[in-house]
Structure formats: C-alpha cells, structure tokens
Specification:
The complex is a heterodimer of chains A (134) and B (197). Chain A is an all-alpha fold and 134 residues long. Chain A is built from four helices and no strands. The N terminus of chain B is likely disordered. With 197 residues, chain B is mainly α. The radius of gyration of chain B is 19 Å and the shape is globular. Classes of the chains: A mainly alpha (134), B mainly alpha (197).
C-alpha cells in the first residue's frame, strides 16, 4: 500500500457532518417549541465553511480517480437525498415553519452532500495512483 | 492481519461482491414507504412497530457485529476474511442505513405523538441524552464505518485487489463497529428507562 498523502478532505467533511449533527440535536431538543436559532445557525455556517474547504481541496487533486469518485458520489447522493428528504418531511409534517424550517433544510442539504463526499473520496483515494497502477 | 498487509492479493475464482445488492432495493423502498405512511398518518401502532423492530435489530446487530463477529473476523486468515466480507458487507450496505432511518424517524414521531418531547415530561432529558448517543454513533457510522465498508467492496471487485487496503479498512470497520456496539449499551439503558417512566 502506498504512502501517498492526501489533503484532509475526509477529516474536514466528517467535521462538517459532526457540526450538522450537533446543530440538529440542538434544534430537535426544542421540538415542539420554537428553537433559538443562534447556535444552530453558527454551527451550520461553520459546517458549510468546512464542507467548502473540503471541496476546494478535493478540486485541486491531481491524478485522482475522478470517474470512480463521481460514480460513488452519484449513488451516495441519491441515497442520502432520500434520507434527508424523509427527515425534512417529518419536520414539515410536524408544522415546523419559517426560519427554523429553512435552517433545518439548509442543514439537510449539507448532510446530504457531506456523506456522499466522504464515501466517494474514501473509495477514490484507494483507486488513485499508485493503487490504480495495478 | 500482517499476512495480508504485504501487498496485492490475487485469489483465483474468488467471489466479486456486489457493492449494493440490487435485489434488496425493493424491500428498502417498501420499508421507507411504510415509515413515511406511518409518520404521515401518525399511526401509533405502525410507529411503535417501526421504532421497536428497527431499534431492536439495529442494537442487536451492532452489538453482535462489534463484540462477537469483529473479534472473530480479526483472527481469521486473509482468504477466509475476504470470503466472509464479500458476503457480509453488501448486506450491511442496505440493512444498516434502512434500520437506522426506520428507528430514528419513527422514534422521533412517536416521542412527539406521546408527548415525551414536552419540556416538563420526565422522559425529555433522557431523550436528549439518546439524541447525543445517536449523534456520536451517526458521525462514526456515516463518516468512518460506511466509507470503509463501501471501499472494501469496491476494492474486492478489482481484478487485483490490494490486500493491504482491505486489511486496513476491515480493521477500521471492525473497530468502529465495536465502538458503536458499546455505545448501544447506553441506548439500551436510556430506552428501558424511557419505557418505564
């Protein structure tokens, strides 16, 4: 196995996911009351920044198995859009409206992107040179 | 595990696993549809069924894989481990996310329906503790365990799989399954507490 070093794409994406989970727990802990939005908004903003940093580092990669990355990313995205859609549906069904709903939807978008990115990156890094040479 | 870390593994006539077992997708779709209908109709029996059945299977599988299968797997020879993984990992790709989705979505709606989320309810703080436990498990499962699972399957489909990559990621899979298995003990304590208050 090669010692090729990759930028911390997985670490940043998992960090972004963890912040979304914490924000989601904060918001869910107030249901059925209206949650205060300050802390969850800050967590979502930092999470989005980490996700963007991860995408930036990812986009700069050379000699990377992009074909494999996109195949896995597309299927992962499909699965996690369904998962996020179901969570979103539960919030809409429970009459969450306005700014809290917008924040939940934004967090779900980040969640639905983070998980496929970390799965696809992990798969593609082991299909990239020098692994791909075999 | 050092026997597979040396390099490329070539196993003639080996089994090439499906990454996603396509035959299982209709079952997953049916389960998801059932959960959606249960939530949409606030159907008490169906919500309880989804939460209890999903939660029992999720907890039992996590404990069994983390504490029983994992340590056994770690001591198997490389070919035996590869053969086991080729049959076991595809099932986990569909089974675990479906059970988690079923348990959490139905459980949240059930708690709301039964008033357990109201601030004055004695179960409220226990449910927040349960969110925290599930949150940690979710980050481990989605961020480490599932990528390792999928990568092992993709690696095993290659013409010449890298044994070192498979060994590394299987070890990661087994350790993280062990951590989530131990964390399920906390879920058992919380849920039995909630059910008896």
């Amino acid at each position: 196995m090669s010692g090729r070093r990759f930028p911390p794409v997985a670490a940043l994406t998992v960090g972004s996911l963890a912040l979304i989970v914490v924000g989601g727990i904060l918001m869910a802990s107030y249901v059925p009351r209206r949650p205060p939005l300050g802390a969850p908004t800050a967590l979502a903003a930092v999470s989005a920044a980490l996700a963007l940093a991860s995408v930036f580092l990812l986009a700069r990669l050379e000699q990377f198995a992009w074909d494999r990355f996109f195949v896995v990313f597309r299927w992962g995205l499909l699965a996690y859009v369904v998962s996020a859609g179901m969570i979103g549906f539960a919030f809409v069904r429970d009459h969450i409206r306005g700014a809290p709903l917008a924040l939940v939807l934004a967090m779900l978008v980040i969640y639905a992107l983070d998980v496929p990115v970390v799965i696809a990156f992990t798969v593609a890094r082991y299909s990239s040179p020098p692994h791909a040479a075999r | 595990m050092t026997d597979v870390q040396a390099g490329t593994t070539e196993v003639s006539a080996r089994r090439r696993p499906e990454v996603v077992p396509v035959r299982g997708l209709p079952v997953v779709a049916a389960v998801v549809a059932f959960v959606v209908v249960s939530i949409a109709g606030n159907w008490l029996w169906a919500l309880t069924f989804c939460h209890v059945v999903g939660g029992a299977l999720w907890t039992a599988i996590d404990l069994f894989v983390g504490l029983i299968v994992g340590p056994i797997l770690a001591r198997l020879s490389a070919p035996a481990r590869a053969e086991f993984a080729a049959r076991f990992m595809p099932a986990m790709v569909l089974l675990m996310p479906t059970l988690v989705l079923m348990t959490l979505a139905a459980g949240f709606q059930l708690a709301l329906l039964e008033g357990n989320l109201a601030p004055g309810n004695p179960n409220h703080s226990w449910l927040i503790a349960s969110y925290c436990v599930v949150g940690v498990m979710a980050v481990i499962a989605l961020g480490v365990l599932e990528p390792a699972n999928i990568t092992v399957l993709v690696e095993m489909r290659k013409e010449h799989p890298d044994g070192a990559v498979i060994a590394l990621l299987m070890r990661r899979f087994v350790y993280t399954a062990g951590i989530t298995g131990v964390m399920q003990a906390a879920t058992l304590i919380i849920m039995t507490r909630v059910a008896t208050q």
